[in-house]
Amino acid sequence: MQHYFHTSSKSVLLFEEWKIETWKGMFVSTLIIFMLTIVYEFCSSYHKYLNYSLNIKQERLARDEQSKISTQYKRFRRHIRSLLFYILQLLFGYVIMLLVMTYQVYILTSVLIGVGFGYFISNPIILRGMDKLYLRELEKVKIENESLNHNGDNVTNRDNETNGDNETNGDNDKSGSRLLVESNA
User: Fold this and answer.
1) 81: which of 58, 142, 156, 164 is 20 to 30 A away, CA to CA?
2) Distance (Å, whole) CA 66 – CA 18
3) 118-128 burial code (b ≥16 CB/10 A, e <16)
């Protein structure tokens, strides 16, 4: 194995069975590696999305403490899913690193182009998903606040009705007592 960058068409990649001896074999190998790096970027971006989703949904679950067992179970499932994508991302990352360590210029070029292309495709998709998730959560919070305000308005209206009854009976005349206090001062 050569420890400097070279352009030879003969290489062994990762396993003894993956021998490259022709330019056609090099082309097929670089195409496979290109696809592998695109999958790596999708895994990396999706892992970011899962972490973002986990953080937003944990805040929501903390507010909705209906049943602690189901909340803990949902958090555990999300955490396991995030963990699996993290392991998959590391696996792809190490395999790509070992491929680059063959010092084959065509392999390195394939990795760089694949990572760039994968990022170019996956990042906008994931960011759009994050935006949708954020807007959905904002809408849920807005609906919750409106329902709380609506319930609070009912309580306030009931209080006003009882205060109005007292004022008409002369039992609770706050404005008159305020004038008396101000005039005595």
Assistant:
1) 142
2) 55
3) bbeebeeebee
The pTM (predicted TM-score) of the whole model is: 0.66
CA distance 91 to 69: 33
Neighbours of 50 (CB within 10 A): 19
pLDDT tens figures, 14-37 = 778 878 888 898 899 999 999 999
d(CA 116, CA 138): 33
Strand, coil or helix: what is 6? strand
pLDDT of residue 46: 86
Contact of 104 with 25, CB cutoff 8 Å? no
- Average pLDDT of 90-102? 91
Contacts of 21 (CB under 8 A, 6+ apart): 9, 10
In angstroms, the CA 70 to CA 73 distance is: 5
